[in-house]
Amino acid sequence: MADAGSYRFWTDEHVRFNDLDPVGHVNNNAFGVYFESGRVALHQALRGRVAFDRHAIVMRKITIDYLAEIAYPNAVRIGTRLVRLGRTSWTTGSGLFVGGHCHATALSVSVLVDVDSHRPTPIPDDLRPVMETLL
């Protein structure tokens, strides 16, 4: 996931002064916020192509591997892609890049949930082929 060429979906962010820790580099928590930006942008793009009226997307798990520190100021690019598609969930892979170099990778599991029952629900038939194009 550290290969920028493996991503087709990109989100751009900028390091904020508020993202820094006392040592002067980006705090680990901010990495999670950057990955969230990429993941949510991908989910919003899916919502733009298929109706999600009765569904919500919740994150079940995230694992982040920190590869290098990030300094302020900087531009950050988040590459996001689907790596697995299940019945009610999918795994998203992400890479955090500064100047073309990968500084962190993440794997997260998102679950499609019915808004009334708050229970996992199967990925709709009209959404699955759209998601498969992102694998």
Automatic annotation (TrEMBL):
Keyword Hydrolase: yes
Record keyword Disulfide bond present: no
SUPFAM superfamilies in alphabetical order: Thioesterase/thiol ester dehydrase-isomerase (SSF54637)
Keywords: Hydrolase
Highest taxon above the source species: Bacteria
GO molecular function, one term: fatty acyl-CoA hydrolase activity
Name of the protein: Thioesterase
Organism: Nitrospirillum viridazoti CBAmc
